[in-house]
């Protein structure tokens, strides 16, 4: 029995061994076939990719847009320079990946790549560097975005940009409430040479007040070389904190961002204005310098100033401050005056001062933001008789808001051309279209022999008008549609 059992086991082992050899050989054969099939599949896929690529290229060439010359296509792409997808990828990058031709057109147009946005929260500089390389030899428009969570280590991006500072024409720092990083960025500009820099913009969205201890003594940025710097716009940061060169400045905008920005000494403010010997455009928003009722205003004449905008938040009630601005700034050649949103009583002080002193004998364009339209009187209109263009920016109930402008309609029953208020007025720009007021104004101006020539309407209001409203206006004046930023 035992011998038979052993013989059976030996036979079973022999069969298993033979089966194992067979299976191994079979597996090797199948693996060989698998490799051959994978190689064939790779070849088929490669061939399929080539066929599909050629098919897509021929299909793209058959599309109407493919008939456009490269120059026209490049112009179309140029409209995408400042637009971004939700993932912050610039649209100009997206279009450069659509077809081979589009990519060639995009990359061969340096002007498409001269606008660069760098986010301090993103560690990679690959995309900005690609823009810098592709933009040559154009000068650069660079925006440094500093979110709340941007770490101090993100300042390394500045060192990447240093070799290219000589080619920057506009530098903008847009920061959330992150003063520490902005402070370091400002300090990093001290030793840089920026021979091509034309515009400097720093916007700090303050959560609280500007930290006077952090900023301490202000620093002079670009002290050695920024000969072309002509435009400076600061929001949420005092002019005294960064002290840019002002000798060639033609455009200056200062915004206190509510009540958060550190106040400049009044003497420093006056010295800064005096240094801007070529200033033609000045915008002041909020409270920017320290001034008390006991202070005496210093008269600064700016002969080149032709555009002056003043804004004053509604929660300020220091009327002497707004008066000090108009007492300080003398602009005998002023052409445009913009009275922006401010507390009504304070605004009335500005209107009364302009009226009583007849400050601007050459004024042509008067721009009034709500509630400035509520403070206009016939006496003010007579004091600014040189006005040819009136812009009204208001959003509330028009009949009530427009009541102070009723003097413009006083000639309804006894038109006297010699007494026409704003006799030179020929252009009216409105944010909201009030049919009754505008129809009366156009009709009466025609009746008194001082007709309006042009009516400009904000694009949103224009698009909401009924066809008969537009046609009535067009039959009497030239009607233009204008975007809000150009009001």
Which SSEs are present, and which pair or pack?
Blueprint: H1 2-62, H2 70-78, H3 91-95, H4 100-107, E1 115-119, H5 126-135, E2 140-146, H6 156-161, E3 168-175, H7 179-188, E4 199-204, H8 212-215, E5 231-235, H9 239-242, E6 251-255, E7 264-265, H10 266-275, E8 281-285, E9 289-290, E10 300-301, E11 307-311, H11 319-328, E12 329-330, E13 336-339, H12 344-357, E14 365-369, H13 378-383, E15 389-393, H14 398-402, E16 427-430, H15 435-447, E17 454-458, H16 459-463, H17 467-474, E18 478-482
Parallel strand pairs: 1-2, 2-3, 3-4, 4-5, 5-6, 6-8, 7-9, 8-11, 10-12, 11-13, 13-14, 14-15, 15-16, 16-17, 17-18
Note down, in words, how this protein is organized.
There is one protein chain. By secondary structure, this protein is α/β, with parallel strands linked by helices. Among the domains are: 68-109; 373-487. 39% of the residues lie in helices and 17% in strands. The protein is built from 17 helices and 18 strands. The chain has helices at residues 2-62, 70-78, 91-95, 100-107, 126-135, 156-161, 179-188, 212-215, 239-242, 266-275, 319-328, 344-357, 378-383, 398-402, 435-447, 459-463, 467-474, and strands at residues 115-119, 140-146, 168-175, 199-204, 231-235, 251-255, 264-265, 281-285, 289-290, 300-301, 307-311, 329-330, 336-339, 365-369, 389-393, 427-430, 454-458, 478-482. The longest helix is centred in the first third of the chain and has 61 residues, at 2-62. 27% of the residues are buried.
